[in-house]
Amino acid sequence: MKTLKNIVKQSTYRERAVFLLTDAFLAALCTLGMQISFCGITWGTPEENYLIPVTMLTLVRFILFFLLGGVVLLALLYVNRVYTKRSTKEVTMRKFYFFSFVLLLLAWLPYVLIYFPGGVFSDTFASIDFAYSMDDYGMTMLNNHHPILYTLIWRGAILFGRLFHQGIFFATATMLILQYLTMAAVLAFLLFWVHRRGLGIKITLVLQIFLMFFPLYPLYVVSLWKDTFFALALLLFSLCVGDLVFDGADRLVRNPRYLIKFVILGFLTSFTRNNGKYIVFLTMAVLLLLQARRLLSHWRAVLAFVMLTTIVMVIQGPVYEKMNYNVDTTVESLGIPLQQLSYLVYYDYDFTEEEQAYIDSIISEESIKEWYHPCIVDPVKWNAPDFQGPIIEEDPLEFLQCWLSLMVHHPVGGIKAYLLATAGFWAPSVTSRDGYVQNWMWNNQYGLECTDLIEKFTGHTIRALTDSIEPVSSAVFFIILVLGAFVSLMRRDYRKLLLLLPAAGCWATVMIATPIACSLRYVYILVLVIPLDVLLICVSGKRTSNQ
User: Fold this and answer.
1) What pTM was computed for the model?
2) Which of 8, 149, 277, 404 could connect to 270 by a Cys-Cys bridge, CB 3.0–4.6 Å?
3) pLDDT at position 2, please?
4) Terminal-residue alpha carbon distance, the chain
């Protein structure tokens, strides 16, 4: 109690401002989330997914969330102040890592057996199709809408199976086992990493149990889509950035091994999903902004940054263009503006003659009335028979000018449309099973089916328990990220915020260009970095032995 009183009395005006702004931000997310009527699926119509008008109850909710949030934030500061006064004892790397790795494998094994050889997503079957097309066409038929690197991993699994005269079932099982082992290895390393950075063994063991039994870890082991590999690559990239914070940038930027690791992990992040390169570039830009003197004074660090940027830009630019791999259209990147335009048309907002003429040139009012869905843009793009995507492709600037004009004239409508189009990523009360996990087999031409091996060999199954797990909103994990950042801000430990920068960058890119309002797979990194959030809550403001 004395510590809590000291926190309040010793806080500065800046700290109070950070506290109040964070509290208000979180209260606003929770309150606005409750203003959304969501039917449970992103394909819901405007009559099913819509914003509820603001009433006095909205204000009451905000006040209650603000008070509750204040208590939570104070509790986090109390935990931080108490924890930073304690010393921690490290265990040996080999013992701890092996212990963690084996326990994760054992805890997740029932999921692997229940959903063997894994749940395959529709996009993943597209990658499998491309991998098989390489038999006849080499790499000429590939496209980067489904990342080339992920397709090549599947190609490797298929070729590995052929060594034993096995087909797609063996290749799929190989991918499952590869993902199973990789995820256990990475998360075991994560636990060791946070322990080495000052997290006590008791809390680390609590996190070990959490990683073992929180279902979103084993369920992503069996979800065979590019997002699991991308999130793991991004997590390792985050830890690599964190090394600069905890081990000292001056020493690491002179170390060729560290810089090679940085380039490799940046490469993997950039090539396992198409928004990866933007996250890597954002991270490097912030590092240069904050650590310019240290980084630019060492030629190896400059070379590593230039090399990584050049490799990504050249391969995904001129090389992919020459190979006709870049098939994603401008319309793909303009999903949210298109949703905002459709919202304004659906709800009969007034337009100028120029705005109306341009809208009519790309899609009719009747089509928008039929195909507009507030939480997913695909029906307008794919199902509306008169949607003229090529017009947008030919002159995207004209589309953006019209969109900007509409936002200036109807800012409230634009904000409402945006809130609906991104709801699942910021509103903790909005969640869906769309793109949540992939523990079932999409319809396919290969005859692949999931087999419950436990039921097959014992006659009993526990699949009903795992299938009945209710989804958790992506926004909940975003809020946990905010809480970790909040403690670092309050303790003026700004450098440690770099640890969460790649995950925050992933969330930001999704908020800018998501085609669907609820899809945990897009921001699964927020689940993986929970141990990093805990680390910041506990050790922000504390100098560790490595600093």
Assistant:
1) 0.94
2) 277
3) 58
4) 31
